Amino acid sequence: MRTALAAVLVTALVGPAVGQDAVKYEIKVCRRKAGDRCKVTRTGVEDMTVTIKDGGAGQVVPYAATLTEAFTEHVEAVGGDGKPSRLTRAYTKARVAWATPGVFGFEGKTVTIRRESGKSTYAVDGQPLAGTDAEQLDDEFKDPSVKRFEDFLPKETVQVGRGWTIPKVDPPAGFDRDGMRVTFDPTKRAAEGKLTKVYQRDGRRFGVVTMTLTHPATRLKMGDEALLAAGSAVTEVVTADWTIDGGPRVGTFGTATTVTLTAESPSGTVSVAGTSKFDETVEPADKP
C-alpha cells in the first residue's frame, strides 16, 4: 500500500505556554548516521470510494487497505546525500490487507537494503526480494530524490505558534495507479508549516510540528479524461511530535490525507472521495 509524504490528524493546535511565545527555537532533526539503531512501528489505513453515475443507477467502487509493520532498523552506511545507503531491518510484523489479508514474505526475517547509483535493492539471506515484497519497499526507497518531512523544516529559528511557507513540494503519491491518473496544478499548491508546542521529556527537547499541504487538481483520467470541478483537491496534514534537539530521533509522526475530486466526463459524473492515514512511532532500539 502506498503511503506518501504527508498528512495527519489536524489541528487542535496546542497554544504556547506563558513566556514561551517570545522564545525562538532551532528545529534540529537528527540526520541518519552509521551505527544508528531504532525500533519502528507503523500503521496505515486507506478508505476511498469511486462513484460513477452515467444516468442510471451508477457504480460505486470501494478501495480499502490497511498496513501494519514493526521492525528494528540498523543503519550501516550513509551516502553523500545524507541518506542511508546500506541498512538492515529485522521485521517482526509486515502485513497488508487489500482485497484479502496478506503477509509479506519478509515478516520474521532481516532485510538488507542497499542503495547504489540511485537504485535500491533488497535481500534476505543473500537472496533478492521480488514481486510485491520488493514493491512494498520500493514505495519507501525507490526514489531517493523525493523530499522528506525534515526537508521542509525552516533553516532559521522559529517561535511557538509562528509558521513558515514551504516553497516547493512534490505532488501527492498514489494517484497514478489502478487505471486512475490525476493531474495536479503546481502553480496553485499551498504548503505551510508551524511549530505548535515545545516541551521537555526525559532530558530531551521535543517539538510538535504541523504541516498543511493543499494540492488543487485539474484533470482526472479513468477511461475518459475529464476536467475536474473547482474545489477538487487533495489535502495533506502532517504532524510530528518528536525530538528537535539534534539527538537520535524519538517520537511519533503521522499523515492524514483527504481526497475530494469531482468531474463530468462523456460517461457521466465521476467522483473520488475518501481518506488515508499513516502513523509511525520511533523508539530507541534498546527500549524494552
List the helices and strands and how they pair.
Blueprint: E1 24-25, E2 37-53, E3 59-78, E4 84-97, E5 101-103, E6 110-116, E7 119-124, E8 127-128, H1 131-141, E9 158-159, E10 163-165, E11 176-177, E12 180-184, E13 190-201, E14 204-222, E15 224-227, E16 233-243, E17 251-265, E18 268-284
Antiparallel strand pairs: 1-9, 2-3, 2-18, 3-4, 4-5, 4-6, 6-7, 7-8, 10-13, 11-12, 12-14, 13-14, 14-15, 14-16, 16-17, 17-18
Task: Write structural notes for this entry.
With 288 residues, this protein is mainly β. It has a domain at 20-63 and 147-284. 4% of the residues lie in helices and 56% in strands.
End-to-end CA span: 29 Å
Largest sheet: 16 strands, antiparallel
From the alpha carbons, calculate the radius of gyration and give it in angstroms. Answer: 20 Å
Low-pLDDT sequence parts: 1-20
Number of distinct beta strands: 18
**Mean pLDDT score:** 85
Principal-axis shape equals globular
Query: Helix and strand string, N-terminal first?
Result: EEEEEEEEHEEEEEEEEEE
Count helical runs.
1
Give short descriptive properties of this protein.
16-stranded antiparallel β-sheet, 1 helix, 4% helix, mainly beta, two-stranded antiparallel ribbon, 288 residues, disordered N terminus
